[in-house]
Design goal:
4 helices; 162 residues
């Protein structure tokens, strides 16, 4: 497996993985994947990664700025999705580790993640990559008519922004 920068040419496979993640009911409040232009505009131009094996995208990770205010320039939210057939093989852990590394190289000092409480695998790989649970938002929103809790995780860099 190789980790590379995510580009527009990867979008069809990235979009399919994103859609599969949403279909699990444990990935995102949104029920639809945005088009490339919207996704591209919402994510930091650097720190976009794909995991590729045999010319196939197995997963992706990216950062989205949490605010356009200058005081939050080094704070971003993490998105990470793994293809169904590739889950449980350590790809998420490797992608997130590389995303953390690149985030620090690009002056991000805080990474945030908001994960449905039921998504224990995602919470676990974030903790393996230095994230800590900082809270839980109970009944923060409904998905398909069901109230959902979201676990808040944070990773503070010990090298960048100190």
């Amino acid at each position: 497996m190789e980790i590379q920068d995510l580009t527009q040419k990867d979008w069809p496979e990235v979009r399919a993985i994103y859609q599969d993640g949403i279909a699990t009911g444990n990935a995102h409040f949104s029920l639809q994947v945005p088009e490339w232009e919207e996704w591209d505009a919402e994510h930091v131009k650097k720190c976009r990664l794909v995991a590729i094996e045999n010319d196939e995208v197995l997963g992706w990770a990216a950062l989205a700025a949490i605010s356009d205010r200058c005081v939050f320039a080094g704070v971003a939210e993490v998105s990470i999705y793994i293809a169904e057939k590739a889950r449980g093989k350590g790809i998420g852990k490797q992608l997130l580790a590389e995303l953390v590394k690149q985030s620090e190289q690009n002056n991000f000092w805080t990474l945030e993640a908001r994960i449905f409480a039921e998504n224990e695998a995602s919470i676990h790989i974030h903790q393996q990559n230095g994230f800590r649970i900082v809270g839980r938002r109970e009944r923060i929103g409904k998905l398909n008519g069901v109230w959902r809790d979201v676990v808040l995780l944070e990773r503070r860099s010990t090298d960048t922004g100190i």
